[in-house]
Amino acid sequence: MVALKQQQPAAGGPKMGAEKLIIRTEKVRFIDILSMLFLRRPITSYPFVEAGDQTAADFGSTPGDWFVALTQLIQKALAGAYYPALMIGAVVEFLLNFIALNNGILGIFLNIFRCKLVIPLNREAPNFRSMIAMIDGRTELKPLPAGGGPDDQRLQVVGVSAGGGGKDDYYVDVESGECGSASVPLLQQQYVNGRLIRLRTFSVFEVTVMAAKIAYENAAYIENVVKNVWKFNFVGFYSCWNKFVGEHTTQAFVMTDKASDASVVVVSFRGTEPFNMRDWSTDVNLSWLGMADMGHVHVGFLKALGLQEEDGKDAARAFPKDAPNAAAGKPLAYYKLREVVRDQLAKHPGATLVVTGHSLGGALAAIFPALLALHGEQDVLDRLLAVVTYGQPRVGDKVFADFLRARLRVEMLRVVYRYDVVPRVPFDAPPVAEYAHGGTCVYFDGWYRGAAIPGGGDAPNPNYFDPRFLLSMYGNAWGDLFKGAFLWAKEGRDYREGAVSLLYRAAGLLVPGLASHSPRDYVNAVRLGSIAAKEA
């Protein structure tokens, strides 16, 4: 998104707001897509584009490039598939749950004979699993090895040695007050003097990746896992309203490690649901809104958190600090979660805050603390321990990335697995949409060898469609399918994949990078991966 210029708007130009570019995909015609490709008309001249007066002046005669046209084509296809995908998804999830709850095909016939057939009609039941949980049904947290040091195989930073060298010195608990220091750089935010930050007996990475994974499930399922499997304290599940869509589109849950005297409050946002084409369309949408010091921010993600007006001139009007009056049963995500976090931090004076999410949930996890900073919620931000996202799409421009770096006391960590398609959208299409990642990218290859890319650096093939990476992407898709079938032989039964997971990996042979978006590989990376990083 172009930098704000101090000049008067062009005479006769639109007067809708200083800095915004909203593309109304529902108004785009196929002939408009052809026009963008071949006639090269100014992007702001199309009737489906709403530009702020300053934006129109900055763009002038700038045409939409092929990334803009491609995005509209993708969104049109996703819109056409919306209802069929929802129906297919409902049928697939019903059948998979029907088979699973009756212990397989043979179990179905046995249960018919026994008159004990289980029919999963209640999607809100604690034993009903989404497609994500069918791909990866693991729910247990993996504790850190008691010995630490060389015995710890999960997400180590190569070359960062244990402080003091003793077993008792390897980890540092969040209760100690040593962690979350602004002086700890980049990836080592998760470490203090070479010791891994520990939430009870689990690493921050383990807790965040599993919380991001189970956020896809229904409220009863999440509560059951948090309380009965993890033995944490479940605070609540929140399904929040999007006034622009007219539906509850945003879900998140909050937990603490203990019911009293907790050391950490965790907020986890639900991500892009596999059969929800609206979620996928939001991920690729190029539209953005000027948000004052925050820079230009993806308008779809702002709407999911509770945006009030598409006002690119007055951020206080677009996203006011004080919570708007919400109708009963229609909470707004940012305001509701801010209230819950405030209450939990007040209830647990020694607690710190962790925010996480996968996919679209990662985008919301990145914007949530940015809005807290915009609104001056310093009491909350002073207790921020970590922001860790997995497979997160781009959410803003370089100004937004710099805003996060300047205003948060910790460096955001953005984990990317291989050619995962979602971190490579929305496309960086300057000058129309100059999207840029922020924080430190923790990039893993197919065998979970990691590298830290600081300063908002991108993973390879940042805009996905670079033909130079085509052979590598398809090769990696075959490699992931092979690894999924045989990884268990090396790493044990926890890494054995079922038919649903392998079929999902096979989809990567058609659309490389799609299967890499599964939370399964992010969990595996956290548990098996290592990262080559320089010591500060």
Automatic annotation (TrEMBL):
GO terms for biological process: lipid metabolic process. It comes from Panicum virgatum (Blackwell switchgrass). This is Fungal lipase-type domain-containing protein. SUPFAM superfamilies: alpha/beta-Hydrolases (SSF53474). The lineage of its organism: Eukaryota, Viridiplantae, Streptophyta, Embryophyta, Tracheophyta. Residues 266-427 form the Fungal lipase-type domain. InterPro entries: AB_hydrolase_fold, Fungal_lipase-type, OBL-like. Coiled coil: none annotated. One of its GO terms (molecular function) is triacylglycerol lipase activity.
